[in-house]
Amino acid sequence: MPPSPRVLLRRLLPLRRLYTTTPSSSPPADPSSSTSASATDALILAKYRSKLEAKAAEKGLPSAAALRADFRAHMARLRSAASRKEEDVRARAQAQPRKAEHTTPPTPPAPPAPHAPGALALSALLSPDELGLPVDRIEAAWRARVGAAPRSLCACVPGATYARMARRAKRWGAFVLPLPAEISSSSSSAAAAGPEEAASPAASMHFVQWRFAAPRVTLVLVTHLAEYKLRGEFAAPHTVLAMHLDLLDSRGVVLLEGGVGGGVGVVEGQWFASVLARVWGGEEGEGGEAEQLLDAFSRGDEAFSLGRLVRLVGGV
Fold this sequence. Notes:
The chain is 50% helix and 15% strand. The protein has 316 residues and is α+β, with helices and mostly antiparallel strands.
């Protein structure tokens, strides 16, 4: 039950006396004056003296007054530390713009990661302005853009040559090619083929496959014959050639890009690209030696001769 008003008045009477001045003629004391503050401090000290002295003794101080002095000094140190921290933050904020003015310019972004041949459309490799240039300047831009990458291949195939290549490749899309040892820049290509597959002591055998999977890109995959016989379609090609057909109708040129790996160097990759043009894109008429060999191989005819094939590609 809440206390009655009379009880509350009794509790407040001591505080009333504290703020009453002794001389009756003096004006009432201001509660914010030093006299009022001293009276309040005295009241608090009298009420909590025992607890303050116990706390002082706990901290090794001689009296409650010493405890209060120690507390005031502690608060002064905290205010000083807070003030210094605020000044440090303000100083760093003011110094930040000056620091930014002297920083070095950001480094340019790294060039895009190498891509697999045929993975990007031609429009992602040459800008619209470059594709609108004369053919000779398109070829120069193509070689500068694609040929600069390590272990890459690039070429520009005339439209008529590609037409012959595509016509024969759609009929004979798989074949073998002997790589002469003098063409190879490393011994890994020759070591990949078993001794029973060598067309001669100076050649290693490789399996060629044409792919017309995309409407504007034709792929050619070249794999070590020994690996293909071992793994079939899961064999990894060492040379991949991609022919972009975007400019075939309008400009009469096909842009070729490629990459090599698996122990095959750029020199061998360039040789394979040139042999494609010789075997599939040669100007000889129907029934010529290249078509006879392509047809005999596709039918598994015993008339297929590795010796004739070596002579056919040996002059490339």
